[in-house]
Design a protein that fits this description.
15% strand, 4-stranded mixed beta sheet, Butyryl-CoA Dehydrogenase, subunit A, domain 3, Butyryl-Coa Dehydrogenase, subunit A, domain 1, 47% helix, Butyryl-CoA Dehydrogenase, subunit A, domain 2, 3 domains, 368 residues, binds flavin-adenine dinucleotide, 8 strands, 13 helices, alpha+beta
């Protein structure tokens, strides 16, 4: 196996490194910048560079580039702390989902604005009583003439306050088993009846929100894919969400700072640094396998689990190295306080292990 980069890939990496450094100089450095670094201006700059939808097929306006190129650009921008959040969900998930399941009209309406870096999307999946167990979600979208009428509440909706559109996972029927009757509907966030309340987390960030829907009407044309079949579609979408470089690289900037100050004469410190640096290399191999579609179906759960637990180990190393000083550097303190989120968002590590055991390894399910 040849792990070297081609000259073109190396040049792309250099370009992304430079763009990342300039973005940090202009917009500041953000920890876990794909979720905490929000800049509409930088989103448009990425659109102009062709770095939104760079791997989407050219017939949909995308760059048609190999998936490995997106890994390179994402790794450099997020490692630098550049603010990519405003386009991240659209680029990673919503665009590919609309290409796969959307109608020609939806593709014509939504993809160009995503590609230009103009629209931010949020994902309305989790509810107060439905997180890991998505099949129990209760938000309804019921047909009334040519519209769906939506009622219910979502929670932890990242960018709920700033998004132009919500990719809503909701119940269009309560007949049959619970995972049936779930559908995906596009909801413009300026539709009357939507109320958004940001939740301030302990880092003082307020990217995720509670979102209430009260008799919100959207045309039935906003249904994505097959009505009642969203469980399958959503699982496919989560594969895009879980196995990417964004799950590995978020703390890299903090690690580089801590590395400079680490007591390298101490063999325990050297050993931990060796573990972290080896962990990064292993994580990148796992992500690369996902990106090259070489991993078995469902394996992104294991990739996410490994990579996000690596990110937490990095945070622990940074905290131990900087000690109380970490609290004096506002952004480092925030980065460390954020680390419990890594193994929760996108599905908890427990759930990832269940998927790995049941779906990938075929182990028997525990009777309920
Ligand atoms: C930073 C951040 C951003 C987020 N952004 C979004 C977003 O944009 N959109 C969105 O829809 N959601 C978002 N979420 C929500 C996230 O997807 C959920 O928090 C996650 O799926 C877990 O659901 P829950 O919080 O309801 O916990 P629960 O499902 O209630 O789980 C509680 C605990 O029980 C364990 N558990 C539950 N079921 C099982 C089981 N079957 N086997 C073993 N253990 C189990 C879990 O591992 C966990 O430890 C975000 C969360 C975070 C932290």
């Amino acid at each position: 196996m040849d792990f070297t980069w081609t000259p073109e890939q190396q040049a792309l990496r250099e370009q992304a490194r430079q763009v990342g450094a300039e973005a940090v100089a202009r917009y500041g450095r953000h920890n876990d910048s794909w979720i905490n670094g929000f800049s509409k201006e930088f989103a448009r700059e990425m659109g102009a560079l062709g770095w939104v939808g760079m791997t989407w097929p050219t017939e949909f306006g995308g760059g048609g580039q190999p998936d490995i190129n997106r890994l390179i650009v994402g790794e450099e921008l997020i490692a630098a702390g550049a603010p990519v959040a405003a386009i991240w969900f659209a680029d990673r998930q919503m665009g590919p989902t609309l290409i796969k399941y959307g109608t020609a009209d939806q593709q014509a309406e939504f993809l160009p604005k995503m590609l230009a870096g103009e629209t931010t999307w949020c994902i309305g999946m989790s509810e107060p009583d439905a997180g890991s167990d998505l099949a129990s979600l209760a938000t309804t979208a019921l047909r009334d003439g040519d519209d769906f009428v939506i009622n219910g509440q979502k929670i932890w909706t990242s960018f709920g306050e700033l998004a132009d559109y919500c990719y809503l996972i909701c119940r269009t029927s309560s007949d049959g088993p619970p995972h049936r009757g779930i559908s995906e509907v596009i909801v413009p966030m300026d539709t009357p009846g939507i109320e958004v309340r940001p939740i301030k987390d302990m880092t003082t960030n307020r990217h995720f929100c509670e979102v209430w829907f009260s008799d919100v009407r959207v045309p039935v044309e906003n249904l994505v894919g097959v009505e009642g079949n969203a469980f399958k579609q959503t699982m496919a979408q989560l594969e895009h969400e879980r196995g990417g470089i964004d799950r590995l690289v978020s703390n890299q900037a903090l690690y580089e700072i801590a590395k400079e100050r680490a007591e390298r004469d101490d063999p325990r410190v050297r050993q931990e640094m060796a573990r972290i640096e080896t962990g990064y290399v292993l994580g990148r191999i796992l992500v690369t396998r996902e990106v090259l579609r070489q991993a078995p179906a469902g394996f992104s759960a294991a990739t996410k689990c490994f990579c996000t637990e690596h990110e937490q180990r990095v945070a622990a190393f940074v905290a131990a190295t900087l000690g109380p000083d970490a609290m004096l550097w506002d952004d480092i303190g925030k980065g460390l306080a954020y680390d419990p989120a890594y193994t929760i968002m996108g599905g908890t590590s427990n759930i990832m292990r269940n998927i790995l055991g049941e779906r990938v390894l075929g182990l028997p399910r525990e009777p309920r």
